[in-house]
Amino acid sequence: MSEADVDVAEAVAPEPARKPNTMDRFIDGIELIAAFFAGIVALDIFISVLLRYFFSVQIPDSYDFGRLLLGILVFWGIAATSYRGNHITVDLIYANVGERMQRFIDVFATLVLLFVVTVQTYTLFDKVRDTYADNVLTFDLRLPVWPFFLVAWIGDVSAVLLIAVRTYRLIFHPELLGGKYQYKPVE
Fold first, then answer.
1. pTM for the complete prediction?
2. Where would a tag sit more exposed on the chain, N or C end, judged by fewer CB atoms within 10 A?
């Protein structure tokens, strides 16, 4: 093996995996919960369409359940995507600045996201409280709506926690976030 081959092998060799700590397991748990709700929404839609198309039967409150479960999915999805940073981004400026400025942009953007989602969490808690106080019910089964709002709010609280952890790690331990973005050019 030549010296160039050794350099290439070292560059391609994966870094040794670090042992996940409690926070990593917490993050993975939130992502698992978000995936669970995605599955529940897909199952609800599939069963509703199947029953309606083949048997002309409708699940009572299927529209309300679908709407409420979709709301839960949105807030847990925010929690799942906000930590990893692998959601859709526009990197026009980011890709053309140095590494120090990229880190500044990351921290600034994450702080703005933390502020926005914190305010959203506060207002969603008001919605949970108002829905409970007003005794809002589903149409067919007359089930209370506030537990669905509460589960969505817990997802939003999880998003705030994960964004706070991301901010902390961006500032003090950026190596824990898994490295740089991988740019894939459009062809």
1. 0.78
2. C
